[in-house]
Request: fold
Amino acid sequence: MSRDVSLDRVTMRFASYVAVNNVSLDIKAGEFFSFLGPSGCGKTTILRMISGFMNPTEGRILIGGEDMKGNGPNKRPTALIFQNLALFPMMSVADNIAFGLEMRGVDKSVRRRRAEELLELVALPDAADKRIDELSGGMKQRVAIARALAVEPQVMLLDEPLSALDLKLRQHMRAELRAIQRRTGLTFIYITHDQGEALTMSDRVGVMSRGQLEQVGPPSEIYNEPATAFVAGFVGENNVFTGRITEVAGGQAVVETGDGRLIGRNPRGIRVGTQVVMLVRPERLKPLAVAGPTPENPNVLSRSVDHVDFEGAFANVHLKQPDGAKPLSMHISNDGSLTDLVGDRVFTVGFAPQDALVLAANGA
Amino acid sequence: MRKLTGSDILIRAYLVLFFFFLLAPLGVMVIATFNSSRFPTVTPWLGTTTKWFDALFNDPQMWEGLVNSLIVGVAVVLVSVPLGTAAAMVLDNLHRQARTFVYAVMVSPLLTPGVIIGISTLVFWDRLGVKGGLHLAVIGQSSFITAYIMLMVLARLQRLDRSQEEAALDLGASHPQVFRKILLPYLRSSLVAGGVLAFFQSFENYNTTLFTRGTDITLTIYIASKVRTGLTPAVNALGVILIALTIVGAVGYEIMRRREVARAAAARRQAELEEIPANALVIADAH
Reply:
């Protein structure tokens, strides 16, 4: 059985430092929810408060509607998978997995059977009698998951458990974690600074910065409709044009930038005269056949190639900006049209107004 | 082979001298045991004998001292290991200022001469009406041996990955269960090493024991009294037995340790090999 988790105006202070600032959030039962943010944003503090290792200075944490105040970590229906896994090196794999059951006074034979079932679930059927130091990184990961599942938690908490694995294994474990979550139907709360992990695994993502939730939504919404410049900058790459709005009409804004007059979407209805950033994803910047702006193609730039990073599936073309500013980045799909990208060639590139997002400049 | 430089030669000469000074007296002592001379000496050699072992085994005072030393040693282990462990755990959880103070208090007996510990233990307990004896020797010795245990346990505690304790709590363990199932097994090697150290510290102690023993004798006291009243090679025979036991213990421990290291390394290699199919699976999935 899985439970929902609610944070009700939760604040955590350490002396004068506010680690988590007035966060309210409802995580549904059976949901895969990720907290995404840079280190120090407060995501680990939230996880430790949900698991009971810390108590919020203000606000309440509810699991299944029940206030968890005063319940220590050993009295909560949560299981935490630690960043370093924290397996017990002096116990066998089976004893690690059965540890929670042993603490609950479950019979030895029942514990053993349950450990073997769980090893089956995490695809490690013959590992029961191995010692922890005999396992590879991926195997340890699976044992940690099995150990947490053994206590039949209603909420699983995961603190960047994949960060120690190599790339291939990490991608594999993403799929596997997601599959385990679907199979068990448990609420998963996942902490990560890796946007790829958050976007591929989660039903919803909460992006955090400096103790506050910047945006909560499904992965596609976080990527396509970032609510703040921070979210846009933290999730995915962007080309950033800074400037001032000179005109607003029909959900669009005209921004006077160092690169000229550019038009983009203005979903937040920002007013004329405001300092803003215009954000364009590299995959939305495209080479154009035309030479100058037209009513259909209002955003046109001529830039020479700085260098090209060939990534396999696509090429990342870096275009020189005037005054030595950060080069623009343009992703060109490797669909057979990719030729002739090297050298001092000048590209005419552009983007449609609906592919450019206008947001208030950071801190404004 | 490359040419030896001046500093190589110096280092080698130093090592040779170092081990000579360390081991030569033991060698002389061992050899003297088998000399039938009445005095423990190598020259003149008056004939090879094992009679001093017989003399040793037939000396009731020696046996009494040995038994008392064993009793005191075991008692010191039983007192100082739990106390030292508790002190280390307290110290590990204290904040900086309190920590510095408690640390200084705990370690100060190590810096105090054993004679002073012996005298002050005697004076203190005498006022409370407790007379000298083996029990007081245990208390006196424990007051500084506990500090050794504390230092050893503390060193290991500070390397403990706290998430181990947190993981156990998270899985539903109570605090006593965390102590028994996580902390104790983790500290086991330090506790065993500390226990052995405590035993030998006690066994060889003379200064503190001299003042606190009352009328009881321990092995060191017995040997010292022999030095005054006429040393015979029987004491050397005792030394030979103790050296032999030490060597057997050390070699046995080392053999066990090497086997364990080799076994763990082999198992880990095996696990890395088994990981490859899992990786291959990922690659197959990608297509």
Remarks:
- Chain B has two domains: 62-231, 234-287.
- Chain B touches chain A through 32 residues (CB under 8 Å).
- Residues 234-287 of chain B form one domain.
